[in-house]
């Protein structure tokens, strides 16, 4: 994938649902994830997971757009 790992929408969604312990029908792609219980610790966990796979993303970037759709815009294919 080159210098920047690109994550699919399905992968981002799956990782978010896993960390929130939510079902797919509970969280829409454009929902504010803070409203679903996403906190800074969980965001940092996702940042570390995705960085370990080669993604170039920061906590601040994710915190500014706390939606699956927003994150796909930053990380997606």
From TrEMBL:
<dbReference type="InterPro" id="IPR009081">
    <property type="entry name" value="PP-bd_ACP"/>
</dbReference>
<dbReference type="InterPro" id="IPR036736">
    <property type="entry name" value="ACP-like_sf"/>
</dbReference>
<dbReference type="Pfam" id="PF00550">
    <property type="entry name" value="PP-binding"/>
</dbReference>
<comment type="pathway">
    <text>Siderophore biosynthesis.</text>
</comment>
<keyword id="KW-0597">Phosphoprotein</keyword>
<feature type="domain" description="Carrier">
    <location>
        <begin position="3"/>
        <end position="77"/>
    </location>
</feature>
<keyword id="KW-0596">Phosphopantetheine</keyword>
<protein>
    <submittedName>
        <fullName>Isochorismatase</fullName>
    </submittedName>
</protein>
